[in-house]
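Fill-in record for SMI1 / KNR4 family (SUKH-1).
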Amino acid sequence: MHYLQIIHKLYNLPEDANHGYTAAEITALEARLQLQLPAALRQYYLAIGKNKMVNDSFNRLTSLGEIGFSEDDHLIFYEENQAVVLWGIAKADLTLPDPPVYGTYDSARVEWFTDADTTEHFLLSMAWWNGALGGLPYTAFTDLEEDLTPERIAAVTTHWQEQTGISNQLLRFFTNDYEDILVLTTEQNGQVNGIYIGTSREEKYKAIMDTLRMEWSYRIDRDE
């Protein structure tokens, strides 16, 4: 399944709704920057770039009016919710149809790490992470010691299929049918330090709660 179809399915987006920028808006941006966006990034802005729940519920896709280059020639198009981390594409990679995406924590923007091997993988990972962090209607998370036992973590890894090779960040993604997303956050050594879940379907949410049976630090049906 194409990654845009996966995002539409997870967020239960109407197929006939307008979620993106117009071709004219993209063309105007490209004229301003004097370049052509990589095909994958252009397609994303056209298809889903204006959807706030997908792109602005935690980390944020840069609007066309704000997108631009860093001093060291990275096209910045995504930022962490407090702007501590920025993500972009190296200028030298902009001719690739689906280039890698780099991130930086460095305030001087001179040290970059490879976040995702492709733009499509990066955008999918952000849609999943944003969804689990509040972009989806039904969410929960836990960082409680009693929930993060090997047995509880195994309940996630055995009941849901891991989606590997998506991000180089300390995040592990799990789903079976793309109607829900479970994210394990980890330490550098692989130890799990948090479990986040999100779905747009109430029945899926209830099934996750019934399967995992955790205490949860927060869950939408209990804390709101």
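KEY FINDING: The mean pLDDT is 95.
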